[in-house]
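re: the backbone from monday

yeah here it is again, tokenized this time
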């Protein structure tokens, strides 16, 4: 099956700030600045505010940690329409005093394991068998996350918890995705089968239906929806997802991009690809979501990169002067839970990827990573290598991979945990969840050439999470 298509790059404009607070004067100055930038654009281009209507932003951030600096979000725009040469237009915009930054983001891609291929099986049986036995990630720690234990606890199926997946396409008509999904609520869905398979696989891991056939989701009673980045861009998709959720709900970012290591070049082996929060608008969108109490889970990316490397401290010349390296963990980071890819138990599905929970060679690593999930051998909906035939609604896979497959395992664990908390102490905050993931779980192991100092974090353990928090 061919690799997924790639969306276009994005041109982002950050205008000169009009103040940290949103006041009538700031709104008036912001309109003036926007008018000036619009004049600099080609006739068929337009500015689109990433954080929505300016007159609604203050209310959306009221009583959040970002309320005192809500005015900063007025400055972020994406440029849509017929733009011509993006780099040349960005350069021209930066020459104007009203523009603090203008940069072209390389196209976001799906963080499947590099060069992953799936061959669709020729047919499907009359009745889909139960593939639960192949989903060892549901099993007890240390090999799995102990979703089996969670499912027996009040709320442990994820009831009442909502998840929005941010990527490009899904097949919510799949036979195993019909009970707790709200479909696609934003963006333009890609027609590409690669993007569609990917979103379908992610949804199956998190909330595959609880029935007698196919797969079982980690949190099968969690309600899952989706927003596509196509047509609106990644930062706007993250912001839109946050606006559609309540505190304690979850946004999953299933994307990565080529980073500065190799001059932002897209390559099939994904070397140098990194988490999207490195770009200022995506970072701002994540901070916006987290400040509203939304748990954001983000794929670390498959670039094989040490995110602690000094290369990520260098500010690109087209970024805002206020930019800092988001991979330096601490109070100024995005607040997202960043997920790396670890190995499944050796021998699963007849294959061996190294010691269980050791870093897979493609996974990014570093102090910024919070947790890991399986990056190989994940059984879920989509792709068709485990069960295929002509009808995509019957497709299943044994080979979902990358930080793509790892991140939904962490999302599912959080959803199940929040469901249990809902019946007791109440939902945990994003910071509480991240602290819990870092202080519990089955520890990372070493593999030849991949020591535990190359941090990807622990594999969640739902029983231990619940006992501690």
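seq for it, each position gets an aa:
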């Amino acid at each position: 099956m061919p690799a997924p298509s790639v969306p276009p790059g994005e041109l982002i404009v950050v205008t000169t700030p009009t103040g940290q607070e949103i006041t009538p004067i700031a709104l008036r100055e912001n309109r003036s600045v926007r008018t000036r930038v619009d004049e600099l654009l080609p006739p068929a281009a337009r500015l689109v505010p990433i954080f929505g209507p300016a007159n609604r932003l203050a209310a959306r951030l009221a009583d959040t940690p970002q309320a005192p600096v809500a005015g900063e979000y007025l400055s972020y725009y994406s440029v849509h329409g017929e733009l011509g040469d993006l780099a040349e237009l960005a350069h021209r915009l930066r020459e104007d005093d009203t523009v603090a930054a203008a940069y072209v983001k390389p196209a976001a891609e799906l963080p499947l394991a590099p060069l992953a291929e799936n061959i669709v099986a020729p047919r499907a049986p009359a009745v889909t068998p139960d593939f639960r036995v192949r989903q060892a990630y549901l099993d007890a720690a240390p090999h799995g996350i102990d979703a089996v234990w969670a499912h027996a606890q009040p709320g442990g199926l994820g009831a009442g918890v909502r998840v929005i997946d941010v990527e490009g396409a899904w097949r919510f008509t799949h036979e195993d995705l019909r009970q707790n999904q709200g479909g696609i609520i934003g963006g333009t869905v890609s027609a590409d089968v690669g993007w569609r398979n990917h979103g379908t696989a992610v949804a199956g891991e998190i909330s595959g239906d609880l029935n007698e056939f196919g797969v079982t989701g980690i949190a099968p009673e969690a309600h899952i929806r989706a927003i596509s980045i196509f047509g609106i861009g990644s930062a706007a998709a993250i912001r839109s997802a946050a606006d559609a959720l309540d505190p304690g709900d979850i946004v999953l970012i299933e994307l990565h991009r080529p980073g500065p290591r190799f001059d932002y070049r897209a390559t099939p082996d994904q070397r140098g690809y990194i988490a999207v929060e490195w770009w200022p608008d995506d970072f701002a969108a994540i901070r916006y979501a987290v400040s509203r109490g939304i748990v954001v889970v983000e794929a670390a990316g498959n670039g094989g990169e040490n995110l602690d490397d000094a290369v990520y401290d260098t500010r690109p010349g087209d970024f805002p002067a206020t930019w800092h390296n988001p991979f330096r963990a601490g109070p100024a980071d995005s607040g997202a839970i960043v997920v790396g890819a670890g190995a499944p138990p050796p021998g699963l599905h007849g294959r061996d990827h190294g010691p269980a929970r050791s870093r897979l060679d493609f996974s990014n690593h570093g102090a910024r990573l919070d947790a890991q999930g399986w990056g190989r051998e994940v059984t879920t909906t989509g792709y068709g290598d485990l069960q295929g035939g002509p009808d995509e609604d019957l497709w299943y896979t044994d080979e979902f991979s990358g930080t793509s497959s790892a991140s939904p395992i962490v999302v599912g664990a959080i959803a199940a945990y929040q469901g249990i908390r809902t019946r007791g102490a109440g939902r945990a905050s994003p910071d509480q969840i991240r602290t819990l993931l870092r202080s519990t779980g089955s520890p990372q192991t070493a593999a030849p050439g991949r020591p535990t100092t190359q941090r990807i974090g622990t594999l969640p353990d739902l029983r231990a999470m619940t006992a501690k928090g």
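The chain has two domains: 10-105, 132-468. The chain is about 25% helix and 15% strand.
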